[in-house]
């Protein structure tokens, strides 16, 4: 639903009746600019999972990922007045998140937490072990386990390829939006996504042939579709 | 079409970005190349796995977010209400920087003054050079001159005498100029060292005296509390 700017600024009676779930992100942030905390809560509900999913696949640490997700959303609230509708709201949010993640990773690379005398084996090219589904094939793999395996596989992609890859594959941003978020040239975005896909495929290759896993994947997708339908109803 | 090019096109095609003029070429290649067909299927499955594996946030995420946001807003409001708090810290930092800069400046001025100021007459320079016209030539006995050279910068006994000898018996304050001709900061420093060392000597003497008294007390105590010899008489 599109609302005119006057309706936000002057608080028309219509506003009270509007279901926030029907309002576009870009209109919600205008409401936040006018001090409506409820609009911010709605944006949090829409973006917290997407941001966490994106950030976790970047930093691998769930605690740190939650912290950075919170930091991103707080910055959205504090700097809401800086948003201009020259770009989609999602582009703006993921730009903030990407910058925060990059800063954090830069800090971590300057201060390594652990130094080992024995260098870790070069495992970039090693595919991940597929989950052992023989123990309880009827139950299959849990969604959390799958999330952990995918996060580990994603972490094997070099960071410069991973950011555009996740923005495209998980967040479904267009190439132009990824270009805006990352500041890369369009051709570079294309080639990095292609290379990241290749690396990701190498990392999960054994899983791609696992019939039990593929069956569970179909069940997960069916459940997600049902939940979407319930939300719409 | 090579497979590497086809893989690039497959990626673009999955995102709906493949130009139509390349689509036909890719289709032809996929009809002929089983590896590239598998590659395309793998990418599709990988994308589905990634989408299905959305990680879950902890249950109290929103509550913690609200808490953190409220704290941030409260801190921001406090800064607006009491901006002097920030200014006070700024002012303290400014004073610290100023004090440091002033110390460096003072040290530099003193160093220049020491380097360029009048110096104590040395035995070789007395009566010679540009100072000779302004400085009354001190009468230094030959023996004292030698001592002056020998002790400058070392001890205080002979040095003290050499300073007084170098001044020809006059007090420094009676001399014209900032320090008076014939005086240098080195001479003043020597005098300070002398008085400091004398004070230290007095303290040391006092300590030695006290320790001697303590030692005497302990010896007398030892004499009075001395146990008899433990040597038992023979036969016991």
Number of strands of chain B: 0
Main sheet of chain A?
Answer: none
Uncertain residue segments of chain B: 122-177, 229-236
Largest interface: chains, residues each: A-B, 46 and 31 residues
Helix/strand/pairing class of chain A, anyone?
mainly alpha
Low-confidence stretches of chain A: 115-126, 132-139
Strand content of chain A: under 5%
DSSP helical segment count of chain B: 8
Secondary-structure element string of chain A: HHHHHHHHHHHH
Please state the overall shape of chain A, judged from the principal axes of the Cα atoms: globular
What does this structure look like?
The complex is a heterodimer of chains A (233) and B (236). Helix content of chain A is 67%, strand content 0%. Chain A is mostly helical and 233 residues long. Chain A starts with a helix and ends with a helix. In chain B, helix 1 packs across helix 2, helix 1 (3-14) runs parallel beside helix 3 (34-52) and helix 7 runs antiparallel to helix 8. Chain B is elongated, with a radius of gyration of 46 Å.
Features:
heterodimer, A: 233 residues, mainly alpha, 67% helix, B: 236 residues, elongated
Write the layout of secondary structure elements.
The complex is a heterodimer of chains A (233) and B (236).
Chain A: H1 5-9, H2 13-17, H3 25-33, H4 37-59, H5 62-78, H6 89-110, H7 143-155, H8 159-169, H9 175-182, H10 186-203, H11 205-208, H12 211-232
Helix pairs in contact in A: 3-4, 4-5, 4-6, 4-7, 5-6, 6-9, 8-9, 8-10
Chain B: H1 3-14, H2 20-32, H3 34-52, H4 61-81, H5 83-116, H6 142-151, H7 157-166, H8 185-224
What's this, in brief?
Chain A contains twelve helices and no strands.
């Amino acid at each position: 639903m599109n609302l005119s700017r006057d309706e936000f600024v002057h608080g028309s009676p219509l506003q009270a009746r509007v279901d926030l779930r029907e309002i576009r992100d870009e209109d919600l942030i205008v409401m936040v600019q006018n001090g409506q905390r409820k609009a911010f809560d709605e944006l949090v509900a829409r973006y917290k999972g997407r941001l966490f999913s994106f950030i976790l696949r970047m930093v691998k640490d769930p605690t740190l990922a939650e912290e950075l997700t919170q930091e991103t959303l707080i910055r959205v609230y504090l700097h809401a007045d800086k948003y201009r509708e020259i770009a989609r709201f999602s582009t703006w949010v993921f730009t903030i998140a990407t910058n925060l993640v990059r800063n954090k990773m830069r800090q971590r690379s300057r201060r390594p937490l652990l130094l080992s005398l024995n260098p870790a084996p070069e495992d970039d090219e090693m595919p991940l072990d597929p989950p052992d589904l023989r123990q309880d094939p009827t139950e299959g793999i849990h969604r959390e386990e799958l999330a952990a395996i995918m996060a580990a596989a994603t972490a094997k992609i070099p960071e410069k390829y991973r950011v555009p890859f996740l923005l495209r594959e998980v967040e479904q941003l267009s190439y132009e939006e990824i270009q805006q978020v990352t500041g890369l040239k369009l051709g570079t975005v294309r080639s990095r996504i292609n290379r990241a896909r290749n690396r990701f495929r190498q990392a999960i290759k054994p899983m791609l042939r696992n019939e039990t896993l593929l069956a569970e994947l179909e069940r997960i997708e069916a459940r997600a579709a049902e939940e979407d339908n319930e939300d719409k109803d | 079409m090579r497979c590497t090019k086809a893989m690039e096109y497959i990626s673009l095609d999955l995102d709906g970005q493949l130009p139509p003029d390349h689509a036909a070429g890719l289709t032809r290649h996929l009809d002929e190349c089983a590896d590239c067909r598998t590659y395309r299927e793998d990418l599709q499955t990988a994308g589905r796995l990634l989408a299905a594996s959305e990680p879950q946030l902890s249950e109290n995420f929103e509550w913690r977010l609200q808490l953190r946001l409220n704290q941030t807003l409260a801190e921001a409001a406090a800064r607006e209400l009491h901006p002097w708090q920030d200014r006070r810290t700024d002012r303290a930092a400014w004073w610290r920087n100023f004090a440091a800069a002033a110390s460096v400046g003072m040290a530099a001025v003193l160093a220049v003054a020491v380097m360029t100021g009048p110096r104590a007459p040395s035995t070789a320079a007395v009566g010679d050079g540009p100072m000779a016209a302004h400085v009354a030539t001190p009468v230094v006995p030959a023996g004292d001159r030698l001592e002056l050279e020998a002790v400058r910068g070392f001890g205080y006994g002979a040095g003290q005498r050499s300073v007084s000898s170098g001044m020809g018996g006059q007090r420094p304050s009676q001399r014209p100029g900032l320090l008076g001709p014939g005086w240098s900061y080195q001479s003043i420093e020597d005098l300070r060292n002398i008085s400091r060392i004398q004070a230290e000597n007095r303290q040391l003497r006092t300590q030695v005296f006290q320790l001697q008294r303590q030692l005497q007390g302990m010896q007398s105590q030892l004499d009075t509390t001395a146990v008899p010899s433990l040597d038992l008489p023979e036969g016991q």
